[in-house]
Design goal:
disordered C terminus, mainly alpha, about 0% strand, 19 helices, Growth Hormone, Chain: A
């Protein structure tokens, strides 16, 4: 298969989609107080507006990756961008909080169809010499987009473009989506997918049920007083995931097409466990944004600017990850998680110590440290997860990797939000510190789990790759 002449231009289009996805994942955070005032949203609704996108994304990613393997990356990328753009328009026009939450979930579904195609595209169109550079651009889009989101959200909310207020954070996706669609049609190769049977509907149903059983009570339980059904639903997630795992093994033994092939999952298990904990730990920035605005009176723009310096750390961490992670393996990942943890703990100390005197300048160094650790660990873990995956499995592997990122994000928002709102009666600083303490505990677990990673990141020729 010859290399596509416009592959670097097509990479720019697909990475732009990942960037927009991550921006949209985080852009709503600084606008939440404004949305609360204008739509009358409660605490749980605020969490759903943030976490609903990540949940819709997570539920669709694995299926989106498998569909891309079967039907071709270009078709699924275009379909996902169409859904995402349409849902963005609906979110921008929403007049009721329920409509906004539904539109956010559908936005996530659209992203879940298109984002897995990016890793598949990189594996198919770039050789081993070009692939590290392409992967660096891809990995960098996640943290940069995640931190550009609050900046853009603050700027658009305060600018009140054409009287749209917070709605502009969603409506801005419409022209970007149209441009991305035009770019995809012009630059992406229309290669056929691999011949496969239909994508495991029973597996999808079991996985969706298990994830819903975890997330719905986690977000709604505190506001409803933790009724018995919420505890039962969480407990039901364990057998649902067990049945899902059994079903995947049975489909694999039968020669079918399981949603997550067991051998692939075993290959990815170590890196994904660390990635899940990192994503969960960073969900606390949802709480930090609320604390700066509701507790300390920061404007949306001031809150966004507080986290902007982390981009410097992200760029440096990404470069370090590209150069050192393949050589140092788990030692590099452990060091990156340790830097991330140290930055978060320092933020917690400053929140408690300075109280109402906390400023963006005081948070400058720890915010950069968080960015440095985040950029390094994401680059290293993405590379470790995709090493040794054959091109025809790239979509499935990409779906698993991206699902882990989004599940971590949704879990972190739900967990830290639950702790924050439960402790809010003790004051915003105490509630924020409690949420940060929980996140620090999760990152400590991530640090411990790095011991299960390979000593050095494998570099396996595609012809010998496991799959």
């Amino acid at each position: 298969m010859g290399r596509h002449a416009l592959r670097w231009w097509a990479l720019a289009v697909t990475v732009l989609a990942v960037l927009v996805d991550m921006i949209d994942n985080q852009i709503v955070a600084v606008a939440l107080p404004t949305i609360r005032r204008q739509l009358g949203a409660g605490d749980a609704a605020l969490q759903w507006i943030s976490a609903g996108y990540a949940l819709g994304f997570a539920l669709t990613l694995i299926t989106g990756g498998r569909l891309g393997d079967r039907h071709g990356t270009k078709k699924l990328f275009v379909a996902g961008m169409l859904v995402f753009t349409g849902a963005s328009l609906a979110a921008g026009l929403a007049g009721h909080v329920g409509v906004l939450i539904a539109a956010r979930v559908v936005q996530g579904v659209g992203s879940g169809l298109m984002v897995p195609q990016v890793l598949s595209f990189i594996h198919a169109e770039f050789d081993e010499r070009e692939r590290p550079k392409a992967m660096t651009w891809y990995a960098g889009a996640f943290p940069v987009g995640g931190l550009a989101g609050p900046l853009l959200g603050g700027a658009l909310t305060e600018a009140d473009l054409f009287g749209t207020g917070w709605r502009a954070i969603f409506l801005v996706n419409v022209p970007i989506g149209v441009l991305a669609l035009a770019g995809a049609f012009a630059t992406m190769p229309g290669r056929a997918g691999f011949a496969r049977r239909r994508t495991d509907p029973a597996g999808l149903g079991l996985l969706t049920a298990g994830l819903f059983a975890v997330f719905y009570p986690l977000v709604q339980g505190r506001e409803l007083g933790w009724p018995v059904w919420s505890i039962v639903l969480v407990a039901a997630a364990v057998p649902l995931f067990a049945v899902f795992a059994w079903h995947q093994r049975r489909e694999f033994r039968r020669g079918g097409e399981p949603l997550v092939p067991p051998d692939l999952l075993r290959q990815l298990a170590g890196s994904q466990a660390v990635l899940l904990c990192v994503g969960t730990g960073l969900g606390v920035f949802f709480v930090l944004t609320l604390h700066l605005q509701l507790g300390l009176g920061f404007s949306p723009w001031e809150a966004a600017l507080t986290f902007a310096p982390s981009t410097l750390g992200i760029v440096a961490g990404n470069v370090l990850g590209m150069r050192l992670a393949p050589k140092l393996g788990r030692a590099f990942v452990a060091g990156a998680v340790a830097v991330l943890l140290a930055g978060l703990v320092t933020v917690a100390v400053l929140v408690v110590w300075l109280g109402s005197a906390l400023t963006g300048w005081a948070l400058l160094v720890p915010v950069i440290a968080v960015g440095l650790g985040l950029g390094a660990v994401l680059n290293a873990l993405f590379g470790a997860a995709m090493a040794g995956v054959r091109p025809e499995r790239a979509g499935a592997a990409s779906g698993v990797v991206n699902t882990t990122v989004q599940l971590g994000t949704a879990t972190g928002i739900a967990l830290s939000g639950t702790v924050f709102f439960a402790r809010l009666g003790s004051g915003s600083a105490a509630a924020t510190a409690s949420a940060l303490a929980v996140s620090a505990g999760v990152l400590l677990l991530a640090l411990a789990l790095t011991a299960a990673l390979p000593v050095g990141q494998p570099s396996v020729p595609q012809s010998q790759a496991v799959g």
